[in-house]
Write a structure and sequence with these properties.
35% of the residues are buried. The strands form three sheets. The protein has a six-stranded mixed beta barrel. It is 60% helix and 12% strand. Strand 5 and strand 6 form a beta hairpin. The chain is of the alpha+beta class.
Length: 674
């Protein structure tokens, strides 16, 4: 597998390595400026080995999932493409009768000997081509009268000695066998056909063409992947194996003397490094020849590049499938990482309070936690990556047992680039989570931390007057504008990351430089004195970022006022209004079930928050709200188990009708979300 979501793996790897280097550079700067803080963070790894092991196990989940997904996809893609290479060997193109001409009967859909002669003459001295060979293929029944066994749909391939140049036919031990060894009436059986009819070298079988029996001598048994699978219209597993006979005998049996069903072409190079896989000029030459000879009614019906591409696509689909379905587990892993560091902060609360009391700043605590988290991170990503390979190997073993009956050999294989991607992505993802958790853990009250006093309840306010609630309501947009501002940079960073992958990270570096300049300009807002260089950078900041700069300046100038009036009551009011608006939009305007159900859920949670704000116990308020939401989402259960309540049993709709509103019209059912 060389691509994921249409992006080359090499580009993804380079982009993630740049982010990994940036994360390591942050730790390097911290270690250079404050080595004591790094040592304080790292000492916890050896002081509590059992806790260290537990944390490493918890942090490795996301990396394990990604490593297993990549390794499984690589294995499937490699196994399919390897089957293609083994089956086709040095066959790069297959020319057949143009299937678009539906007016031609099946028995006339053959290429003439003149086509082969013209093709050979045209490209005899062209160094881009190695060999040409004619083939006749047909589906027919095979019977072993001595064992009373038969196969009704076997693939027959008629080949002449020129086919030996493609190195396709090999016996069970892997040795190459020759078409010339068949003589005039010999036959090679594939392994599956030989097992089906119970025949081997020295036995005789009977084939039937248009109910005419012909007895043939079995010269030997060749592998199932000896080129025959590539010519089956129904696919490699749809028929019961195949047999190879001399070309003249196949033409005699089918009554098509001097004509062929296919011409196989080999370009310069070997099995995996053929010129046709690297350059399209070989196919262009063949198509130009076909255009010059329309009377031949020939066409390029199959190429090795197409089959290899299908194999790689299958591998990419497997990777996408596992990653998409693993996103839930990855999200759970990220939450687990956050909770682990919250737990560590709660355990060391008194220790951090005393450190703050003797002079450490919040930034110092954040750097200490970040250094400790990065140490866990690097180790857990390595363990997760290796365990992911183990999980993939176990999964591949199970898949191999399942697909073996279908003739597809699954062999474990992983791409080192994919492993580097999984490791780097795991480290970067965990670093971002640890950075947020460390920042949050460092924001503590020194006195409460030293005395181990409980933190104030965030949803309950000391002043519950209507004026305070209104001012809190008006302070919420200040935070929302910050969310919009951060969202702009997140979106810009995401697009720069995706687009920059094709440029090996140039876009990522560009956005990182712009973000650094933006942060520098924002920090200059509160500075009264600036150097000439700072003034130049600050003026340039206003010119380049203009609207974003004005928004940032306004937010920083009003932050004290907004922070003084912020509380959970204001957020609860915004949630309540937003929930009611969504419910009204979904039920009475657009009919969207998602807006209707989501708005009602948001409104109920907002009511619970307001109840806590005015003194209700948090556990009781949210328990009642949770039970009410579960009951509402399951409606009309449990009433529909006992009585016929119809399809309009909805308390929200009932409340609306009590207020004189029309009935809500919602498209779909709540169950669609499950």
């Amino acid at each position: 597998m060389n691509e994921l979501f249409g992006i080359p793996l090499t580009s993804i790897m380079v982009g993630l390595l740049i982010l990994l280097a940036a994360a390591l550079a942050v730790i390097g700067v911290i270690a250079a400026r404050h080595p004591l803080l790094v040592r304080m963070g790292l000492r916890n790894l050896v002081r509590r080995p059992a806790q260290t092991v537990l944390i490493v196990v918890g942090l490795m989940l996301a990396t394990l999932i990604m490593s297993a997904a990549f390794a499984t996809g690589d294995t499937v893609g490699y196994s399919v493409t390897n089957s293609v290479y083994r089956s086709l060997a040095e066959i790069d193109f297959i020319l057949g009768f143009k299937t678009e001409d539906t007016a031609v009967a099946r028995e006339d859909a053959y290429l003439s000997a003149d086509v082969l002669a013209s093709l050979t003459t045209r490209f005899r001295d062209d160094s881009d081509f190695d060999a040409f060979a004619p083939l006749v293929r047909e589906t027919l029944p095979v019977v072993n009268t001595s064992r009373r066994l038969s196969e009704p749909r076997a693939r027959m391939i008629g080949a002449d000695p020129a086919f030996d140049a493609f190195h396709t036919l090999r016996d069970r031990s892997g040795r190459e066998v020759s078409v010339a060894a068949l003589g005039a009436s010999g036959v090679y059986l594939t392994e599956s056909l030989a097992d089906a009819v119970g025949a081997g070298a020295g036995d005789r079988i009977t084939v039937f063409v248009e109910n005419r029996p012909t007895e043939l001598a079995v010269v030997g048994v060749v592998r199932d992947t000896s080129g025959l699978d590539s010519f089956a219209n129904e696919g490699p597993t749809a028929q019961g194996g195949g047999l190879v006979v001399p070309l003249a005998l196949a033409q005699q049996l089918t009554g098509r003397g001097g004509r062929f069903t296919d011409i196989v072409v080999s370009s310069r190079g070997g099995v995996r490094d053929a010129l046709a896989l690297k350059d399209s000029r070989v196919q262009d030459k063949l198509e130009a020849f076909i255009d010059e000879h329309p009377e031949a009614r020939a066409d390029v019906t199959l190429t090795k590049e197409q089959l290899v591409g299908i194999g790689e696509l299958v591998g990419s689909i497997f990777v996408t499938f596992f990653i998409v379905f693993g996103l839930f587990s990855i999200a759970a892993g990220v939450m687990l990482i956050f909770l682990i560091f919250v737990m560590l902060a709660a355990e060391r609360r008194s220790e951090m309070g005393m450190a703050r009391a003797i002079g450490m700043s919040r930034l110092h605590l954040t750097e200490t936690f970040l250094a400790e988290g990065m140490a866990y991170n690097l180790g857990s990503a390595a363990v997760g990556g290796l365990l992911g390979l183990g999980v993939a190997a176990l999964l591949v073993f199970v898949m191999g047992q399942l697909f073996d009956d279908f003739g597809l050999s699954i062999a474990f294989h992983f791409n080192p680039r994919a492993f580097v991607i999984a490791y780097s992505l795991g480290v970067v993802l965990t670093f971002a989570t640890v950075l947020f958790a460390a920042y949050r853990a460092a924001n503590l009250n020194i006195v409460r931390a030293i005395r181990d006093l409980p933190e104030p309840r965030p949803l309950r306010a000391a002043d519950r007057s209507a004026g305070t609630l209104l001012r809190a309501f008006l302070a919420v947009p200040w935070t929302l504008f910050w969310v919009v501002l951060i969202g702009v940079w997140v979106v810009a960073g995401f697009y720069a990351f995706v687009l920059g992958l094709s440029l090996y990270g140039v876009g990522i570096v560009g956005v990182a430089l712009l973000a650094t300049w933006f942060v520098f300009g924002a920090m200059q807002i509160d500075h009264a004195e600036r150097s000439r260089g700072s003034w130049a950078a600050y003026i340039g900041w206003w010119i380049v970022f203009n609207v974003l700069a004005l928004l940032t300046w306004s937010l920083l100038r009003t932050r004290k006022l907004a922070q003084r009036h912020r509380n959970a009551g204001g957020w609860a009011l915004w949630m309540l209004l937003g929930g009611v608006a969504l419910t009204w939009t979904g039920g009475w305007v657009t009919g969207w079930l998602f807006a209707y159900a989501g708005g009602t859920t948001l409104a109920v949670l907002a009511i619970a928050m307001l109840a806590v704000y005015y003194g209700t116990a948090p556990r009781a308020a949210f328990t009642v709200a949770g039970l009410a939401l579960v009951w509402w989402w399951l409606l009309p259960l449990p009433f529909s188990l006992f009585i016929d309540v119809g399809t309009q049993f909805d308390p929200v709709d009932g409340i609306a009708r009590l207020l004189g509103l029309p009935r809500a019209e919602v498209n779909g059912n709540i169950e669609m979300f499950f």
